[in-house]
Every structure is written in structure tokens, then in C-alpha cells.
Amino acid sequence: MKTLLLVSCTAALLGAIPFALSARSLALADGASPDPVRLRIDVDRTVLPAETPERAVVKIGLDCIRLPRRDLRPPVNLALVIDRSGSMSGDKIEKAREAALEAVRRLGPDDIVALIAYDSGVQTLVPAQRVGDGRRLERAIRGIEAGGNTALHGGVTRGAEEIRRHMEDRRFVNRVVLLSDGLANVGPRTPDELGRLGTSLLKEGISVTTIGLGLGFNEDLMTRLAQRSDGNTYFVEHSGDLPGIFAAELGDVLNVVARRVVIEIDFPAGVRPLAFVGRDGTIRGQRAELSLNQLYGGQEKFALIEVEVAPGRADAELEIARARVSYDDAVKQRPTTLTAQRSVRFSASRAAVVGSADHKVQADYAANVMAVAKDEAVVLVDSNRRDEAAARLRAKTSELKKIADTYQNSSVQQMAAAAAPEADRLEKEGLGNAERKNYRAESAQTRSQQSSQSR
After folding, report:
1. C-alpha 55: how far from its chain's center?
2. Shared-domain flag, residues 198 and 233
3. pLDDT in tens, 341-381
4. 118 in the same domain as 62
5. d(Cα 129, Cα 107) in Å, to the nearest integer?
6. Distance between CA 415 and CA 160 in Å, rounded?
């Protein structure tokens, strides 16, 4: 069984890599707590070959400090949207009730929760209100029974309506948690339609976490909804794992340190931004932009941008990127801005270029390149074009192997080694139902561009 988390943010040490921060972001004056986010710019190599055009990868990293005390967290405005269609009968609905009860028990009395159940129609079992002692919510959860079809879009829409009842209070972290085991067969039901819903909710500051249970749900739809709304997504093959998944999700929701995050990266003359790697973002001329709904304490969130650098003469330096990040501090309830810049040097020495490699940035790039290739392979296999799907993976494997060999990067080497037999298996056998869901979930996890490892 694979259980995979889509979007989050990781404990990080500043390390010895040079970067610039606004002075106030690290201040501890008068015993005040530091700002929760630290901005870092890294490059796949800090020394580039001289006298030749070169492509490079710029990484914008947001390192998020874990909250020192649980009582400092912002309150939660949560909608639990639970599938009670006929396919959820038996152990599934029982474990879903158990998981929802576990979620309620982890909340505080002043958190806001709404409970929505859906089958052929949608019913608000408990409208958005304070948890209090939790008894009303617990009674409603225990009373959920399975039967009917799957009005998934309607369930999410109703959950968002309940969230909006308390959105004027900007202290709250707004989240819809959707559980489904089946195909959406009532109302809007395509990935594009649910993706558009996710995009619109993100603009309002509402993220949707999707939990797909078993082998009957539409992973394309669930992943698209979560990705477009900056939520998390999970594939849970066995219902017995649901309580643990709900606990993990609440762990994120209860540890939000920043919201309404806007990242702006400016590139100087001589550096042309080509594309975001593995995620959606906007590039207009010399500026790249990205918006996120929230960041989680104890985690890192990052973005990768591939750039083309004009030829530089040996020993010259070039500022390669300048970043500005603005966000709302979820604990202190105030807007905050961070800035950073990063430069590279040119050299005629191959050894200097190779020795300057940042293996972590290269590994992040390689993982995202392969995640995109796997998403493309799924589409090709669906079209009965296995040979093309395998060729796509082999081409990316060759690219990764070249990086690994040139820069002696063991992490990239391991990815390349794992991808080669995967391409062979894909060509011969295609993708089964569970394997397809794993492909989608693993790709989504990687393309969320989160890391739980300190540098």
C-alpha cells in the first residue's frame, strides 16, 4: 500500500551556503520569536562554464520553522466532506467514521468544523461551528451510513460554502478534507471541471485535501483538485489506514505558519527564465511568479526554474536571480516580506564547474523531471502507446545518467538506475489500476516540491 502526501513545507538549517535575507527575518530582539519563513536561493552549480551559453537550474527555497508551542497555532476552519455512497458500505464507512472522530479529537474547542456527507445528494450534517466539547460532531459522525451514488463536486462545493461562513476572520486556516472511494457520477465529474473548482477555491484562500480510498476512485480527478487548490492528496488502498492518514493531515493543518504566499523572482539581463520545472507558475519577460496558499512549520517548500545564461568571461561574476517573498504570518497575524539574491561565477576550468555542483538541487531537478515523464507516460499508456511511454522514460533516464556521471551525484544515479527497469516493465505490461494510482500519487508528491530533510 502506498500512502503519499502531496503538498507541505520542512525543517531546515541555514547551512553554510551563502544567501541574503532581510535583517528582520532572523532577528530575535527583545526575546521575540523569529519570523517563521527563511528564504534561500540555490543554483545547481555556482560556477558555470565560461564563454558558452549554458542552462542552469535556480531553486527558491522556503524553510519553515516549526511552531515552538502548540498553543501558538492559528485556529482551524475545517470542512470534513465524507463519501457515503453505496460503495463505502461495510469496513470502509466504519473506518471513515473512525478517522473523522480521530480528526475531531485532535482539534481544540475554538476550532471551527463543518461535517458534510454526500451520496446521490449532499447533506450538511453539522454546519460550521465551534468544536466545543465535540459531542454533537461525534454523534453526527457515528450516524453516517452508506448508500447512493457519488455527488463529489457538490460535496466539495458545500464544504467550501461552510468554510466561507467564517472567512472574514483572517486568523483561520481554511481547509476542506474530501474522502471518496468512487467515481464522481452526479454533477460535474471530469478532472478539468474539478481542477477549475480547485483553482477558484485557491483564489479564495481555501485548499482541498483529497483522500482516495481503494481502487475505484478517479485518481486524475482527485489529484487535479488537490494540486490546483494547493492541498494535499493521498492514495489509501486499505481502509484500515484511514485514521493514520487523517492524523497526518491534521498534523499539517495544525502547523500552518504562513498563508497567502507570493513568490516573485527577477532575472537580470543575460539570464532568460525558460520554465518552471515540475509545477505551474507564470513567466512574464524577466520575471517568474508563483502563489501558494499556506506553508507548514518544520518543512521546506521550493520552486525550480530552468534558465538560459548568456556566455560570460572567465572569473566574471553574474547575479543570476533576485527573489521577493511576501506572506501573512499565521501566528503574528501580520504581513511579512523577505528578499534574497544569488550570484554565480564563470570559469574555464571544468574541475571548478564540476566541484561547484549542488547535489541537492540536481537531485530535486532530476526527481521532478522524472515525475513529469511519469505523468506523460500514464497518458501514453492510456492511449495504448506503451512503446512511446517507455521511450519517454528511457530518454529521461539517459539525461539523468549524464548528470550523475558528470557530477558524481549518487542520488541522481539511483534515480536513473531505478527508472531503467521501470521503462522495460511499462513497455511489456503497461499499468494496472493500483500501479496507475501509485504513478499519479508519486508524481504528485514529487511535484508538490516539498522536502522534510534539513540541508
Report:
1. 26
2. yes
3. 999 999 999 999 999 999 999 999 999 999 999 999 999 99
4. no
5. 13
6. 39
